[in-house]
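Rather than argue in generalities, we reproduce a single protein record, letters for residues, whole numbers for local backbone shapes, just as it appears below:
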Amino acid sequence: MNIAMNPTEIEKGQFSGLVPNEYITMPDGARWRQFEIQGGIVILTSSGNELFHDSNAKEIFESLRQYRLDISQRRQNGEARQYLANGGNGEIYTVAGHQLVVKESRSNHSLYYALQRMDTLARVIETHLPHWVSLPAHYGLISSSQIGREYMLIEKIDEGISLEDLVQYEERGSARSKTLTDAIHQNFRGLNGWVIESLKLQFQEFKTLLRRYLDTPEAIENGYTYDSLLPDPNYGNILVEKLRTPIGGKHFKMWIIDQ
């Protein structure tokens, strides 16, 4: 199986005789790499390739090795694998010591196709929507029937606080987990109903702008629809970052996840 959606080029990767792999050029020119493993695939996006060639790649690999050990020993809060919250179709864990999270899913290929959708949505947002909305970098994915789970490595945004967490905190005094509740208490002092309503209006503005884009010749030519780009637009899938310097008059940045 191949992750690429309308790739512009596919070529064999280095050492493909030892570990079958391909370089995939995406429509925006980004270069992904896909490896075949027993029962599935490993995908590195262009952001993932950069991450693992960074100066601290050795430390990241060591943390991911420890993360795997935590999984094998079923540690929800281990040395590297630390529970953050439930996410769409899975759980979210932070990778201790790094601005990274891992989404773990038991649904075969759900994250595989989500990676396609998120890549398409990222291109649309980057080129056509205001800069107060964005997507976290998605670095890669392990999908194999042999391990019974899928693992997606994603950029961590601040403390991972969603609009749903903020709404719930304002109403009940708690978020989805103790970690998130403590983070809101620390980072969103003065949270009140007026702030919540302004955030809801900002999210509604984003959805209106996205629908407006869908009327453009580019969107129509590519067959984009609202549901294909944003199939699950609930408050739990909108991370909120408090800005020190406003962007476009907005005091909060919204990050779209889990589409």
